[in-house]
Recover the amino acids of this structure.
């Protein structure tokens, strides 16, 4: 745990340095979401933004009305984290799950610092861990401790159920950060619904061997989620091309879906330095 916290502090310092030097600001714009919530209606006045007009009320014939918004004081940042067995891929010293923990940890601590409510839901094909959103540093450390100590009870993945849980548990518009390798199907409908209701950030974790497998000849490959073993020829050009094209097709479809519904998308290779990539994401979100 001490090693994990030290690593999170190191990443946190690196990100803050980058944010301060490149963005001249804080994380607040990253985590605030829309920053506004509906408060009241008033009569339209010359110079008002026409996008604020409430056409349903105005159509009743009593005048033109615009919506009045107020700044949200308490923004919720909610992490939805895939901890299924497919996250246990990569070199022994750094699995996909290790990168997932680091990214979640540093973003959670940054959100807590900006006075946000922070919560987390870890999933496989069932609920593995749930931490109710709160705005104390104690909650931040509880989140980190739970994430590191968690031993999933199931190996399988069900992203659709995890998204449905999130939709049901979050009543107000929140920043939802979804971290997964997206090795699953049938989650698209719920992802669209989540992106419509909340400010969604999708972090797609993958291992380089899922794109470019080493040439090892004919070897047994163990599926960690189903337990099945298949023999594959890793030196076969057809197999290697199929593996790469399958990954790229899934990635393009997920990225297109996110773009269509105004969700931020970030693909992270688990062995790369993720600090510059996160800063790039922050820069995009700051000016949205």
């Amino acid at each position: 745990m001490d090693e994990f916290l030290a690593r999170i502090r190191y990443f946190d310092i690196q990100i803050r340095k980058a944010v301060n030097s490149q963005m001249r600001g804080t994380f607040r714009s990253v985590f605030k979401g829309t920053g506004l919530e509906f408060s009241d209606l008033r009569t339209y006045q010359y110079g008002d933004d026409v996008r604020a007009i409430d056409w349903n009320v105005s159509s009743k014939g009593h005048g033109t009305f615009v919506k009045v918004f107020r700044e949200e004081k308490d923004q919720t940042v909610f992490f939805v984290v895939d901890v299924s067995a497919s996250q246990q891929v990569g070199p022994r010293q750094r699995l996909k799950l290790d990168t997932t923990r680091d990214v979640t940890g540093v973003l959670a601590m940054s959100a807590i610092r900006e006075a946000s409510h922070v919560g987390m839901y870890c999933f496989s094909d069932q609920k593995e861990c749930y931490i109710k959103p709160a705005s104390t540093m104690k909650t931040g450390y509880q989140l980190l401790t739970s994430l590191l100590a968690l031993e999933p009870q199931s190996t399988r993945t069900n992203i659709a159920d995890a998204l449905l849980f999130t939709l049901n548990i979050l009543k107000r518009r929140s920043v939802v950060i979804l971290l997964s390798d997206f090795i699953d199907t049938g989650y698209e409908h719920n992802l669209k619904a989540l992106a419509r209701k909340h400010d969604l950030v999708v972090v797609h974790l993958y291992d380089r061997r899922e794109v470019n497998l080493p040439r090892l000849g004919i070897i047994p490959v163990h599926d960690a989620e189903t337990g099945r073993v298949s023999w594959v020829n890793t030196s076969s050009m057809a197999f290697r091309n199929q593996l790469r094209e399958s990954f790229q097709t899934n990635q393009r479809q997920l990225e297109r879906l996110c773009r269509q519904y105004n969700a931020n998308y970030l693909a992270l290779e688990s062995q790369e330095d993720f600090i510059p990539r996160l800063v790039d994401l922050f820069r995009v979100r700051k000016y949205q």
